[in-house]
Amino acid sequence: MDVFSLNSLLLKTGIFHLTVGHLVMWAIGFLFIYLGIKKDFEPLLLVPIGFGIFIVNLPLTPLADKGDLIWIFYHYGLEWEVIPPLIFMGVGALTDFGPLIANPKTLLLGAAAQFGVYVTFFGAIALGFTVKEAASIGIIGGADGPTCIYLTAKLAPRLLGANAIAAYSYMAMVPLIQPPIMRLLTSKKERQIVMKQLRPVSKLEKILFPMIATLVICLLVPDSAPLMAMLMLGNLFRECGVVQRLSHAAQNELLNIVTIFLGIAVGTTMKAETFLNPQPIFIFILGLIAFSFSTMGGLLLAKFFNLFLKDKINPLIGSAGVSAVPMAARVTQRVGQQENPRNFLLMHAMGPNVAGVIGTATAAGMFLAFLK
Length: 372
What we know:
The chain has one domain. Helices cover 71% and strands 0% of the residues. The protein contains 21 helices and no strands. The protein has helices at residues 3-11, 20-37, 43-56, 69-79, 83-94, 98-102, 106-112, 115-126, 131-138, 145-155, 160-172, 174-185, 188-191, 203-220, 225-240, 244-251, 253-267, 272-275, 278-305, 327-339, 346-371. Helix 9 runs antiparallel to helix 10 and helix 12 (174-185) packs across helix 20. The radius of gyration is 22 Å and the shape is globular.
């Protein structure tokens, strides 16, 4: 083999096409994998996302171009909006709406936690994003990755990678972001409030809830139906007691499979040439603002309720109104027990937590109704 042929062969390898940008993205991918494995931050999401970031930044690899393997996951799963509703079905099958049914006031806490969505919507417009782009960025504040992907794919598909990464990053970093805000906005006395045990919820109530919720929400906000209907269908599988195989499949096999496809597809949207520019950085900053204001909205409404309620609400549960189920509720439990070891807030926090899922999907439906 002559020197010319050897050079031609070497030029066809990825080594000679590596750039600093590729190395930076490798570092970001490895960071996501590290956070998933070492810190246990949403490992089911961060590990496949991190690996997707890594492989898409291997030069010349036939993975993410049209017709390639990962492109198929992305095109049919995300662009065709198949994966987000399927994830909602799995989430519904895993979710117990009992705490929300037992204490309907917590639905308002979940609604208040959408405050950051709208604050960031107007902030993104002020920074020069279009109205549709601003809506897709604002929804990051709900800390609901599937809803963010669903809305962005419809309104601002070119931002899909940056928005999805921001949404899932903040979902994973709930234990880091929320506690300082919770302590800043509440007093030690408020954090020590012990709430009464929730009333038992009957099986009939749990069966009727997904039917009634689907009817009311989809009539009021029709564009939320693909997400809301699948969420409630999964919950009906769980609660009716006669389709255990379907409930088990939605909770386990189906949810695990689509999570793998979702993580890899989201990660492979982060090519160095598209991601390493100022706009994704702005999106990450706006996403943090959105998530912070959403946490504040739930906390402050809970404090407002306590001005009038005889049985006080521990305002920490308001921070669980974001859609990061069940991580936000677990963070509430942890912070509450740090102040009062006898305090058990997990079930109380699950009310606004699952309400946040409904609230974020409804907010996305409202944006679609006005902007699509």
